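Retro notes, structure queue

What went well: the backlog is down to a handful. What didn't: a couple of records were mislabeled last round, so from now on we paste the full input next to the output in the thread. Example, using Glutamine amidotransferase from Wenjunlia vitaminophila:
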Amino acid sequence: MESTLQGKKIAFVVAPEGVEQVELTEPWRTVQEAGGTPHLVSTRRGDIQAFHHLDRADTFPVDETVETADVAEYDGLVLPGGVANPDYLRMDERAVAFVRSFFDAGKPVAVICHGPWTLIEADVVRDRVMTSWPSLRTDLRNAGATWVDEQVRVCDHGPNKLISSRMPDDLKAFDEALLTEFAK
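Corresponding output:
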């Protein structure tokens, strides 16, 4: 893979438990293979527990907490899904504020599956066109977004590029869009 992200640091924000492992590891690998540096950010130090749907999977060490991380140090943000992961994040004011800061700074954000729940809480989806796991369709519409049923959608209507995707089956398209948009 081309070194299109050379010198770029990408934040992956996840809860201490509940992230869908493949939605963390596949984009992480894509960032690394493109020469970028992925950085795991969570609400507390230690390890996070990933899942394969409802089954425990691997653990991963946290690099930084949302409380001490600085958006200025990052070139983009990835929000993996899993049902429990964004549900936890959207209830943590520090996590929501950190996510919102990427929009305020005009930095690209990539979100997949149930990840948009955190964006809804951060009030950053209004007037955006995006996709998600199908059960979030009504939530996104109620928050002012236009929901589309597509593998991946890049929305540039707003303060930043917003890349969204539906599910693990769409990871290849998600990773390609993430790579293209984060390289700019």
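Agreed that this is the format going forward. Reviewer comment attached to the example: The two ends are 16 Å apart (CA to CA).
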